[in-house]
Amino acid sequence: MKPETINRIRKFTEDRDWDQFHSPANLAKSIVIEAAELLECFQWSDNQYDIQHIKEELADVLVYSQNLLDKLGLDADEIINMKMSQNEAKYPVDKSKGKSEKYDQL
User: Fold this and answer.
1) What does the pLDDT look like over 63-100, one tens digit per residue?
2) How far apart, in whole angstroms, are the C-alpha atoms of residue 46 and residue 43?
3) How many Å is the Cα radius of gyration of the chain?
4) Is the pLDDT of residue 59 over 90?
5) Alpha-carbon distance 32 to 28, whole Å?
6) CB distance 81 to 93 below 8 Å
7) In angstroms, rounded to a whole number, what is the distance separating the alpha carbons of residues 105 and 88?
8) pLDDT grade for 106, boundaries at 50, 70 and 90
9) Residue 103: pLDDT above 90?
């Protein structure tokens, strides 16, 4: 995410004094709730959906995720790269390309 966007999220929270409500647990719950609302966009059809509604719900997931990163003092690039390294080790290309099995089934 661009620094300007991150700063806008932080300012929004700060201006409203909402950090007091942003415990890690509350933020994690909010991410799951918003992710469920995102999934609801596809509830009755896999290929007929409202892209604007999807963008709004996905944005909510991302905003709460950024708030959780801030609350825990985490860096998105650092933790994403850590997880990608783990995934690359668990899912080597030669065993997993074109397959949907879990790593312990490859």
Assistant:
1) 999 999 999 999 999 999 999 999 999 999 999 999 99
2) 8
3) 17
4) yes
5) 6
6) no
7) 15
8) confident
9) no
Among positive and negative, which fits the CA dihedral 8, 33, 75, 79? negative
By three-state DSSP, how is residue 103 classified?
A: helix
Half-sphere exposure of 100 (CA within 13 A, CB side): 0
CB count in 10 Å sphere of residue 53:
13
Q: Distance between CA 63 and CA 57 in Å, rounded?
A: 10
Rounded to whole angstroms, what are the CA distances from 81 to 9, 46, 87, 96, 100? 23, 30, 10, 19, 22
CA distance 74 to 80: 10
Q: Which residues contact 10 (CB under 8 A, 6 or more apart)?
A: 70
Of 37, 83, 30, 27, nearest in space to 58 by CA:
37
The contacts of residue 8 (CB under 8 Å, 6+ apart) are none
Residues shown for the chain: 106
